[in-house]
Write a structure and sequence with these properties.
heterodimer; A: Ubiquitin-like (UB roll); de novo design (two linked rop proteins); 3 domains; 5-stranded mixed sheet; 42% helix; B: alpha+beta; Ubiquitin-like (UB roll); Alpha-Beta Plaits
């Protein structure tokens, strides 16, 4: 049984309410931080913990906090990014739904560390019920004196608001989120300037994921060094993984980073193996935007080491044989799944969610989607596979925000690892007419049709 | 600060962007810019045509930047070294951006009023290719009427956001903006409202493509058949300088635009009265012919250059065709008529 940091109190009845949460030791970090620590000491503590951003990029949170411009004298803001829209990721929803006060406690402590007097939680519009939970929790916290003017008699003021987004994936990008929060169209800004210098209303702003902020109370209650002891190397602490797909026990799990993928997949404590007797075909470790990995690269890296659930091990070998931890959307496929269809589905998502600001992403994502649709529906041409490769390579790196990269990577990885499946779709259009084509006849059985023959 | 672009160095003020520095140098290394407009605050960075490679960040931090940077929004650092035309990677990126911009473009230049002064034409002439890899149906939009003076062709739009910024920064009531997202984002007033603001006509001047064109000039003439003249009038509209370019055909003013420089950016914004209502020669004081850059298609109507007769050197009698083809093979008994004989001996010229 590994250590739980975020979800250890999840089974306490009524933990959603303030009374129970407080009785279970909640808000202790706020007391400790405000009464005994200076803001810089809190930042220092988070820096020592090695906590990395849980939203996908994995940038060290303490480092991000220390970049915030304190010299300009402008008001500073902390914004919590709860616009969790990545297909396959649902950890933040789970956390906010069951432990709303943990997030609020983290927000207060982190805002104190940054010297922010006005903080926001930006939540996606589809999470309306979660929004109501958070609103109720904020009202309870305010009534108990944890928010508002002069918190704990320290002279520190903090107002915390929840803002609902319109349900756009792009508003999870931090500068687009800020634009949306300001009431504008959610277009990503051109960086530099970075939000730490000029963010919300041109004030220094830090944008953090829900899970990152929720990890702060534990770090303050214990210490950064204690947090750094959990995990391996630069991947410290615990991570919420939202598992879905063809596994026995789907759901949200808190794991210590450094757990092996094999154990996570197969132990009964976690996913409990595949859903039925069909073999594992592929998996996506971190939400739809990270590269998919084929079966032979899941448990072992390319050079034969065990694949671990860490930032480093999952990206071992670069994109050629690795992937990314991303936001922890763990999607597992057995051999009934069609990679082409899955890639098309992801491409359709990105084509729909592209903001339309910069040309490579606006036109390229739509193009990828159309070509993949043709291949999946038996209208593909042999040259389409190279065309897809060419389009994705032209989107990647040439866009304003990472959505272009996120749209390009899954397509690139699918072609890199499952090219023969694309060829099968192109060459045998009559066989893939039924959308469940791999259920009756898994690809392994028909692979010989497209494999290279030596005569 | 000293920056080097394609091997040419220039001293610039702090805060200059790479694109501005390149424009000071001029010549081949100026990156194409579809969305950046010097006079509009916050423009640029969207079309990704002006991507350049930063080979050396600055004297203090000489590491190269890993990604290609949009030159219109990247500030110069002291000692920066930039590859624009010289870099293969940049050329590739520009080619691909051009391809992306063209896949959904209707390519209706033969009926487009912007043809001849269109930035997208210039871009594709330089970086485009004559084949397409796009076999899907092009995206189209329902036509929208945005008033009596401006014609909106949304299918041609490349979403540079310039017209939105014009409305934001020149006028105080913007009624149009970008609707929807992804490849369906479009410029619209949402409720088919007319854009009637006194400075709305500048949207036509800033539009790099034929998405916004002058309705009073619609289908009247190709731009290169008109002769541009600098002209001015005493304009009473506050904020309008009255300095324009009038485009004449004979003694008729076909249209009025702002004065554009070599990067197709206007010197001064003009009001709608000057642009749409003053079409009589008596309204204007003509200053003289407007000069355009050397290779502009607009100069094609300028017959001051002497055109030499072109002589193509070939073998003698090549237009007659081969000898063996000039044999009468059907009914050789019947003699040829006089005209037929001529064709046979001289060739079918």
């Amino acid at each position: 049984m590994s250590q739980k940091i975020l979800l250890d109190k999840i089974n306490v009845p009524g933990i959603k309410t303030y009374e129970v949460y407080r009785r279970e030791g909640g808000y202790a970090s706020v007391e400790k931080a405000i009464k005994t620590l200076t803001p810089d000491e809190v930042v220092e503590e988070v820096k020592t913990s090695g906590l990395r951003g849980r939203g996908g990029a994995g940038f060290p949170a303490g480092m991000k906090w220390s970049f915030i411009d304190k010299k300009s004298g402008k008001p500073r803001h902390l914004v919590c990014n709860a616009d969790e829209s990545e297909p396959g990721t649902f950890k933040d929803r789970f956390l906010m739904e069951h432990l709303p006060h943990l997030l609020i406690e983290g927000m207060i402590t982190s805002s104190y560390a940054l010297g922010a007097n006005l903080s926001y939680i930006y939540i996606r519009g589809e999470y309306m019920w979660v929004y109501k939970i958070l609103e109720r929790a904020i009202a309870e916290a305010k009534a108990a004196g944890w928010l508002g003017k002069n918190i704990l008699g320290s002279g520190y003021d903090l107002e915390l608001y929840v803002q609902i987004g319109g349900g756009a994936y792009i508003c999870g990008e931090e500068t687009a989120l800020i634009e949306s929060l300001e009431g504008k169209r959610g277009n990503p800004r051109i960086k530099p300037p970075f939000p730490a210098i000029s963010g919300l209303w041109s004030n220094p702003t830090v944008v953090n994921n829900v899970e990152t902020i929720a990890a702060v109370p534990w770090i303050i209650n214990n210490s950064g060094a204690d947090y750094a002891k959990i995990g391996i190397g630069r991947s410290t602490g615990t991570k919420l993984i939202s598992a879905s797909g063809h596994v026995k026990n789907q759901g949200v799990y808190e794991i210590e980073l450094g757990l092996s993928v094999y154990e996570f997949m197969n132990s009964d404590e976690y996913l409990g193996g595949m859903i039925d007797s069909r073999p594992l075909k592929a998996f996506v470790p971190g939400g739809s935007s990270v590269p998919v990995l084929p079966a032979n690269l899941i448990y072992k890296t390319a050079n034969g080491d065990d694949r671990l659930m860490t930032y480093e091990s999952l990206s071992d070998g670069g994109f050629a044989t690795g992937s990314m931890l991303g936001s922890g959307g763990f999607i597992v496929y057995n051999d009934t799944a069609c990679i082409v269809r899955n890639t098309w589905n992801f491409a359709r998502f990105y084509a729909h969610e592209s903001c339309g600001q910069c040309s490579p992403c606006r036109e390229g994502t739509g193009w990828l989607e159309k070509v993949l649709w043709r291949i999946e529906n038996g209208q593909g041409r042999e040259e389409d596979i190279d065309l897809l490769w060419s389009i994705q390579s032209k989107i990647e790196g040439n866009t304003i925000c990472p959505l272009g990269d996120a749209a390009a990577w899954p397509v690139a990885a699918a072609i890199r690892h499952f090219r023969d499946e694309f060829e099968y779709h192109v060459r045998f259009p009559e066989k893939i007419k039924n959308r469940e084509h791999f259920v009756a006849e898994p690809f392994e059985k028909v692979k010989h049709l497209v494999s290279k023959q030596t005569v | 600060m000293k920056v080097t672009i394609d091997g040419q160095s220039i001293d610039v003020e702090p805060g200059t962007t790479i694109l501005q520095a390149a424009r000071m140098i001029g010549g081949e290394s100026v990156p194409p810019a579809m969305c950046y407009y010097t006079k509009l605050k916050g423009s640029g960075g969207k079309c990704r045509c002006c991507l350049v490679e930063v080979a050396k960040g600055s004297d203090n931090d000489p590491r190269p930047m890993p990604k290609l940077m949009a030159s219109c929004v990247t500030g110069c650092q002291d000692g920066m070294e930039i590859n624009s035309t010289a870099s293969e990677r940049v050329q590739d990126a520009r080619k691909s951006v051009t391809e992306f911009l063209l896949i959904n473009h209707p390519l209706d230049c033969p009926v487009c009023d912007q043809a001849g002064e269109c930035d997208l034409q210039n871009l594709s002439f330089k970086h485009g290719k004559s084949q397409t890899r796009y076999i899907e149906k092009k995206r189209t939009f329902e036509p929208e009427d945005i008033g009596p003076n401006i014609q909106l062709h949304m299918n041609r739009c490349i979403l540079c956001y310039r017209c939105v910024m014009v409305a934001d920064q020149l006028t105080d009531d913007r009624v149009h903006g970008v609707m929807d997202r992804g490849d369906h984002s479009n410029i619209s007033t949402c409720i088919s409202k007319a854009i009637t603001n006194e400075f709305s006509g500048n949207m036509i001047d800033v539009c790099p493509v034929g998405a916004l064109t002058d309705k009073t000039f619609r289908f009247k003439s190709r731009v290169w058949f008109n002769k541009p003249f600098d002209a001015h009038r005493e304009c009473t509209t506050p904020g309008c300088c009255g300095k324009t370019t009038v485009w004449m055909f004979g003694n008729e003013i076909q249209r009025v635009t702002g004065r554009k420089d070599e990067f197709h950016e206007v010197d001064n914004f003009i009001c709608n009265t000057c642009r749409f209502d003053k079409k009589e020669v008596s309204d204007w004081t003509i200053e003289g012919p407007r000069k355009f850059e050397k290779f502009s298609v607009i100069n094609q109507n300028n017959y001051t250059r002497e055109l030499d007769t072109v002589i193509i050197e070939t073998e003698k009698g090549i237009l007659k065709g081969r000898d063996q083809d000039r044999k009468k093979i059907s009914m050789p008994q019947v003699p040829l008529s006089e005209t037929e004989k001529e064709v046979f001996t001289e060739g079918n010229i």
